[in-house]
Design goal:
It is a single chain. It contains five helices and six strands, in the order ααββαββββαα. The longest helix has 15 residues. It is 37% helix and 42% strand. The N and C termini lie far apart (32 Å). The chain is of the alpha+beta class. It has one domain: Nuclear Transport Factor 2, Chain: A. The radius of gyration is 15 Å and the shape is globular. α4 packs antiparallel against α5.
Length: 142
């Protein structure tokens, strides 16, 4: 059930269905993205996808594997890739592996967060070393 829920969310994101992805969350659910931060509630999650994900990238591929869940908390590995639309990185493909952690409620995602190494992704996009370091330092301030 948990892996099917994650697959439903990631498939919706990959086909640019922001509202469909948001319905995988509880009404007050939280999506904490490794690049864009935290968004609370279905409307804000859908807005984050439309205004950030789809603005900055295209051709998403997201494969979930190894999902485990005790009914309240679930973890899964994933492989994620996209083609950049960012100025200076247009057309470059970036990909990475990560782990997501989800708190569940009422059969939906109450809180989604992820862990991945962001520096190699930024390097794949051709970001300058200084910009990568700045991004990594900003992330460590928590």
């Amino acid at each position: 059930m948990f892996e099917a829920l994650l697959t439903r969310m990631t498939s919706a994101i990959c086909r640019s269905d922001a509202e469909g992805a948001a319905t995988c969350f509880t009404p007050d659910g939280i999506y904490h993205d490794g690049f864009y931060g935290e968004f609370k509630g279905r409307a804000e999650i859908a807005r984050m996808l439309r205004e950030f994900f789809y603005r900055d990238a295209r051709d998403f591929e997201w494969k979930v594997s190894g999902a485990v869940c005790d009914g309240k908390t679930g973890y899964a590995r994933y492989d994620f890739s996209y083609v950049s639309k960012l100025a200076g990185s247009e057309g470059k493909k970036a990909g990475f592996a990560g782990i997501c952690c989800c708190e569940l409620g009422d059969g939906l995602i109450r809180h989604y967060s992820e862990i991945f190494d962001r520096a190699p992704v930024l390097a794949q996009l051709g970001f300058a070393d200084e910009r990568i370091l700045k991004s990594v330092k900003r992330r460590t301030r928590g």
